[in-house]
Amino acid sequence: MIKTDMKNFADIELQLKWESRYGKHIDSFFAGRVNFWRDILPKALLEKLMNRSIGDSVDTSFNAGEIIPNTDPKKLFDIKHSQFDKTFLPDRTVHPRQGRFYPKGILKGIANVFRANMEPFRCAEVHDSNILVDFNHPLAGTQLHVKATIRGIKSKPGEKGGGMSNDWMEILTTGPGMQIRWNGQPTDFFSDNPFARMDEASDKHFYEKPRFVNHLDDTAIENISELYGKVLRDGDTVLDLMSSWKSHIPPHSNPGKVTGLGMNLEELKENERLTDTVIHDLNENIALPFVDESFDGVICTVSVEYLTHPLAVFKEVGRILKRGGYFIVTFSNRWFPPKVIAIWQHLTEFERMGLVSEYFLLSEEFEKLHTHSIRGLPRPEKDKYYGELFVSDPVYGIWAYKH
After folding, report:
1. pLDDT band at 159 (very low <50, low <70, confident <90, very high)
2. Which phi and psi angles does 358 have, rounded to 5°?
3. How far apart are CA 244 and CA 112, in angstroms?
4. Of 214, 341, 384, 403, which has the maximum CB count within 10 A?
5. What is the pTM of this model?
6. Cα(298)–Cα(311) distance, rounded to whole angstroms?
């Protein structure tokens, strides 16, 4: 049996686990064709990965500062409002908002920062006289736990000088941490008319024709099902919020009842997991047509980005959930442009998790927040976009439990 060594490539699923004051977080990245001879991995992790077989997993914990530098007070500093270039983007005016991330190139008069620099920094606080910016990594000062699972091993030709190398910890930690508030302060996602849409006509017209298509590739759909399977329990009464012709509940899960609330009756009738259907437009009427504490769980798949009154809807979800009930929201990086809310298009993918996290936190209905991201997996060869896109659609999941 072939095992990992310096003469082989390995496909490795890297899983970053960390905690915040709000809950637990997992960020997964599929590292393909890892070259142990050339690529960069922490010594403690590299040693554990040697002489391993496909399916083996190793775990390594890193104290704050070992992978990501600790918080540097010098990277937290004030700037003038005139140093924030509101005209940085050609299509819209950009205003500094508390807790949000922006490319460093938007700043003027900062040493070693140039306009082409797209590395994100956090706008920590906004005051009338100044802006407090944070150049520290969002996971600075956080203890990190890395789990690495061998998914494939392949022999490689002999090594030669030169060539590219990958710093897999840098890749793994680029993005994670951006979904959490700065210093416990709510992030300002709600200025600048964030819930405006390109098409403000009634959603009834947009969704009147059924769409029997998958909006994500099969790997992404499987990842969503696996996330649901970790939380759903047999016998649960479940509401599939903003449902369609598939619910993505895994085959091995046996909920007692699944109610689908959606916009198109033909799509809902096609959904084999539903035991009950309700036609309802949440953007027209935020009140869910159910009595208090009537569901064990609520799921919402690739639809949260269309809600124009999300805080009120999350409040309603809390009302209809039983105590300890769960609300799971999943999304990717695809959407219908005419109906997606404006703020969604202006955020990075991990900031979108931050936006949905704010929905949970500001509703004051939930606790024990969890976030889970899955990136970098190969796109299925049978997928229609294979050849154009080699990486599977990313999956972002956020869930929490009713107080």
Report:
1. low
2. -65, -35
3. 50
4. 341
5. 0.96
6. 15
